[in-house]
Every structure is written in C-alpha cells, then in structure tokens.
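Hello again, I could really use a second opinion on something today. I've dropped the whole record in just underneath, so have a look.
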Amino acid sequence: MNSISAVKTPYNQTVLLGTRWGQMLALACDPYQTASLGFYGEWAREESALTCSLLKLGDVALDVGANIGSMTLPMARKVGPTGLVLAFEPQRAPFYCLCANIALNHLLNSVRALNAAASDFDGAIEVPIVDVNKPFNVGGVRLDDPVYDDATKLQKEEVPCFKIDSMNLPRVDFIKIDVETMESKVLAGASETIDRCKPVIIAEALHGEISTWEEENIKRMKELFKSHGYDARQIQTKLFSPDNVRYCQDVIFPGCDHNMIAIPNEREKPEWFLKLPSE
C-alpha cells in the first residue's frame, strides 16, 4: 500500500481511502478489496456499473454479503434518499467498517446494516473471527462449504442467521448475493419474497475453484430460478477496468467475477441481457 495515498489509523488495522463513492474505511489485512480501493479508487468497476444499471431511484435493494460496503455504497447512491439498501454482513471486522462507511458517506437514512447472515433457516451460524493483524482475504471466507478449511483454523462466534422471508419485507426490487457458495441457500430462504415481489437478482456463481460444492451451488440456483419463473443467465465482469477513478493502468487483478443474473420471465429484458448465453 506504499504506492497509494492513504491515511493509516492506529495499529494499522484499518486504512482510510478516497474512492469513487467517498471516503471509505478498509481493512489493512485484505489484499483484495483494500488494494483495489487504494490503486483504483473502487472495487470491481464493471460489476458495480452492472449492478447500478439494474437499480433505479426509490428501489428497495438487498446486499447479501456486503463486506465493507464496496457495492453497498454505489447501490445506495443509485436508489437515492427515497430508496433503501439492506446490507447483510456476518463477519465482525468488515461489519464495523461497513457501518463506518455508511456514516462517513451520509447514508444513515439510505442503508440499514445487519450483522447477520441470510440462509435457508432461522437461528444462528458460526462465523470465523479473522485476525486483522495478518494478511487474509476477508471477502473469501466461506461459512457453509464442507471442504473449505481456511476458516477452520480460526476462532468462531455465533451470529444471527435468518431467512429473508422471515423479515416479511413489503417490497424488494433487487437482490445482490455474494456469499461464497451459499447463494442457493439464500435464494431458498427468500422463496416467498421472490414470488411476491419479483425482484431482479444478481448472484455470484463461483466455478470449481476449490470443490464440487461450487458447481452444486450453481445447479441449485438454476433450478430455483426456473421454478420461480425467471430467465437466468451467467455473465463475467472483469475485475480490472482501465476506466477507474484513479486512471491507474496497473493490472493487479487480471481475472473476472462470475455472476448469474435473473430477471422474471414476464419482465422486459435489456438488449445486453438477451445476448448473454441462456441457461
């Protein structure tokens, strides 16, 4: 982080960075989102733009797996003061940063942060406590992958977990889910809400990087979308964009994000969506 302009906070656990969306408090231990915010002034430019294109002023949106708020903030800016973003983040350290970023950017009326996980049951779930004094991919923590062992080495704490259906939300226009192979369980716990509100949905779709659990998660998502009457298609967005706010051309993230976008069958589809491979 020496090559970027940043304000370090005591003990170097966090760093304050200027970004496209305003000042953001990030975790110094995270070599992914924090590095991207530092070098580019934003995280996943293409995915952020895609997400915002699916939102409109006044929408009610869910950000399930909000981390420190790198997607929450642009979503909140897009829905505006008449809209609302409900941001779920079960991990303690990124949740603290998420709350700070909401306050720093005057979004107290536009975002409701929840230190909780969403799944297909109501109760509690064990969440790893990341050591913020050591390098760690905080956004890559998996809560429900039977063969993911990185988190088994960490102390854990119980955090509330509930179905989105249990919230009895009167309106939901958009759902973004990025929960490291728990996406299908989040959708299963939102079945009634999806049928009633017919939101547009974008969900991460990781492919076989660690285990067959990733492909099973995608298979279940496809089945769920089909059963709810959705047209679901997969899309890749580049992690690096030359059109970043700092005009930095150093490609430190050459890969892509893999997501699934689902739109109700009865709704008119954007032209770019219809060009995506059909599931």
About this structure: The chain has one domain: 7-274. Helices lie at 33-40, 45-53, 72-79, 92-104, 183-188, 191-197, 213-227, 271-274. The longest strand covers residues 230-238. The mean pLDDT is 92.
